[in-house]
């Protein structure tokens, strides 16, 4: 364990990914940014690319730029995300809309592929948007919702296991929707094992990868996943509100019907036909005009992830969370804090969560002292450690300041 700031700086000096931090626009303030899992930092290449987009492609090319590249971006960037982050062969991923909207489309589509089955399964404590949408889609399709207990429901569990899922599956289960990394505890679910379990029951799975994409190696094709969605503004550093991705396994594409059939998902976008016919490929998941500014930012962010490599990112994320866990045990637990994240790095994503008394007030004080964490209602402080940009020194400083705040010094 790095017990001094100097030791943490030595870890940074030996970090094989240290050079990547220089490729981001990073200032002096804050002293420790520990919220890259909510909003990643801006890559320098994105600043340059956006300027060029506005000055050359938009200002100069105007509407002509749609036919010289813009229209292809959702699929082209989707393929890049697939290849670099998701373990997905080309032609199955598009980048568009928000994670919430893509989840809505994927859940509808998945339920449609399992007509006749009456139940949709969602984790009781999953991210709010996932639960809201599961309930809404179930209502719209006349299904009932079965909730998986935990995590964070007071039952002491940190996440959903394959056995937990197996226990609720029945012949009526149409779709199971789950987060790969739990947004609160950081628990890393067994994507391969749960997918296989769901399939044995004849159901389909929709994975939300928002908190794992870019920090955990993912193999959607190899695991036989049906659908997946996730954010690009977290560990993929694409910027606030940048468009999300949706993956549909090739074997499902021809039969997939999504509920927002807009012109950009039609077989012939410019036919202006009387009736909608979906594109034969993954483009059918699109609805309206692509967000070009956001798409180029996704492309630049994902290029950096690809350059670093998921194995190295995963190794650094584990080392960062390991240091955070050790410092929490040494400094924060004796002051009344409680680690709410798995101790085993094999089942942990890239953030840790610490429960402290007066978490909202503590968070405000941390921010006032230049440490930016994430507050999660009602008593959790989440420290997101983004391996492309977070340093060991930031982790050390963040927990050192938390120790000072809790001990009122
Ligand atoms: C961040 C996050 C979202 C956010 O969805 P948006 O539509 O981008 O607001 C959804 N699901 C999970 C699990 C998340 O962590």
Describe this structure in words.
The chain has 409 residues and is of the alpha/beta class. It has 14 helices and 13 strands. A seven-stranded mixed beta sheet has the order 2-8-7-6-5-3-4, sandwiched between helices. The protein has a four-stranded antiparallel beta sheet with strand order 9-10-13-12, covered by helices on one side. α6 (128-141) links the parallel β3 and β4. α3 packs antiparallel against α11, α4 packs parallel to α11 and α5 (99-113) packs parallel to α6 (128-141). The radius of gyration is 22 Å and the shape is globular. Bound molecules: pyridoxal-5'-phosphate. Pyridoxal-5'-phosphate is lined by residues 98-100, 127, 129-130, 179, 183, 208, 210-211, 231, 244.
């Amino acid at each position: 364990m790095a017990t001094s700031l100097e030791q943490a700086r030595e870890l940074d000096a030996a970090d094989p990914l240290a050079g990547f931090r220089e490729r981001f626009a990073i200032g002096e303030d804050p002293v420790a940014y520990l919220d890259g899992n909510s909003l990643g930092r801006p890559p320098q290449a994105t600043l340059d690319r956006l300027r060029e987009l506005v000055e050359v492609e938009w200002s100069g090319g105007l509407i002509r730029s749609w036919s010289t590249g813009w229209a292809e971006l959702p699929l082209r960037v989707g393929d890049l995300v697939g290849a670099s982050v998701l373990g997905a062969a080309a032609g199955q991923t598009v980048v568009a809309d928000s994670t919430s909207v893509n989840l809505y489309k994927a859940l509808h589509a998945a339920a449609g592929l399992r007509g006749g089955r009456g139940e949709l399964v969602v984790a009781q404590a999953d991210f709010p948007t996932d639960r809201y949408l599961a309930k809404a889609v179930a209502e719209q399709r006349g299904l009932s919702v079965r909730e998986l207990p935990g995590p964070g429901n007071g039952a002491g569990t940190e996440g959903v296991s394959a056995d937990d899922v197996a226990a609720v599956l029945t012949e009526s289960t149409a779709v199971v929707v789950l987060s790969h990394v739990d947004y609160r505890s950081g628990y890393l679910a067994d994507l391969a094992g749960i997918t296989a379990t769901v399939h044995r029951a004849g159901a389909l799975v929709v994975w939300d990868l928002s908190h794992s994409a870019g920090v955990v190696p993912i193999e959607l094709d190899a695991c036989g996943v049906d659908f997946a969605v996730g954010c690009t503004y977290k560990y993929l550093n694409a910027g606030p509100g940048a468009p999300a991705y949706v993956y549909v396994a090739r074997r499902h594409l021809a039969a997939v019907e999504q509920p927002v059939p807009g012109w950009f998902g039609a077989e012939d976008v410019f036919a202006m036909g009387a009736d909608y016919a979906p594109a034969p490929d993954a483009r059918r998941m699109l609805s309206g005009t692509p967000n070009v500014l956001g798409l180029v930012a996704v492309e630049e962010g994902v290029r950096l992830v690809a350059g670093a490599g998921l194995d190295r990112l995963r190794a650094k994320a584990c080392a960062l969370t390991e240091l955070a866990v050790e410092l929490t045990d040494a400094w924060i637990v004796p002051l009344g804090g409680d680690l709410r994240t798995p101790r085993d790095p094999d089942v942990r994503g890239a953030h840790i969560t610490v429960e402290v008394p007066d978490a909202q007030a503590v968070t405000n004080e941390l921010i006032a002292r230049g440490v930016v964490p994430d507050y999660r209602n009602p008593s959790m402080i989440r420290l997101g450690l983004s391996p492309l940009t977070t340093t060991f020194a930031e982790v050390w400083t963040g927990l050192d300041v938390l120790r000072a705040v809790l001990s009122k010094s």
